[in-house]
UniProtKB/TrEMBL annotation:
Taxonomic superkingdom: Bacteria
UniProtKB keywords: Membrane, Transmembrane, Transmembrane helix
Membrane-crossing residue ranges in chain numbering: 18-38, 58-78, 90-108, 124-141
Gene source species: Arthrobacter burdickii
High-level lineage: Bacteria, Bacillati, Actinomycetota, Actinomycetes, Micrococcales
Pfam families named among the record's database cross-references: DUF4383
UniProt protein name: DUF4383 domain-containing protein
Length: 154
């Protein structure tokens, strides 16, 4: 017998679907970072550092390291979407990581060695939106589950 808090086998909850979608987008972005044309100034793609002149969609400064981070983050989202708690953790803690990265991008000198990923202004504000969006998805898509769990233990 399944209840509202226990999905049927083979079905995904909304938080699992969200984590899967976010993970898939990160995986796609990581792959697109290696595609000339989608990545402008591809010949200036370096492994890491603010010297990398490659721009994903002509807007976001990237490097090989930046692309690898996107690929790993995407794979983690897909893997963690298999369970409700994994999906929630991926979205919540991944969102927090992106908010920390946003703050880091705001305070670091973009022309310093500390900008090793690299990050630019467009990256910073995208990280803010990602962080807020991921945390919101984690909290909003699991709030009834948390409420049901508390009610069951009362």
């Amino acid at each position: 017998m399944t209840t509202a808090s226990t999905p049927r086998a083979g079905t995904r909850t909304n938080v699992q679907k969200a984590a899967l979608a976010v993970g898939a987008v990160f995986l796609l972005v990581g792959l697109l970072g290696f595609v000339p044309g989608i990545t402008s100034q591809y010949d200036q793609l370096s492994f890491a550092g603010h010297e990398s002149g490659a721009m994903l969609l002509g807007l976001f400064q990237i490097s090989v390291l930046h692309n690898i981070v996107h690929l790993l983050f995407g794979a983690a989202g897909i893997a963690m979407s298999r369970t409700i708690s994994g999906a929630r953790s991926y979205l919540l803690y991944g969102g927090i990581i992106y908010l920390v990265l946003w703050i880091y991008g705001l305070v670091i000198d973009q022309n310093s060695d500390g900008n090793f990923v690299p990050l630019n202004g467009a990256d910073n504000w995208l990280h803010f939106l990602l962080g807020v969006g991921m945390v919101a998805l984690a909290l909003l898509l699991t709030r009834n589950r948390d409420h049901n769990r508390k009610a069951a233990h009362a």
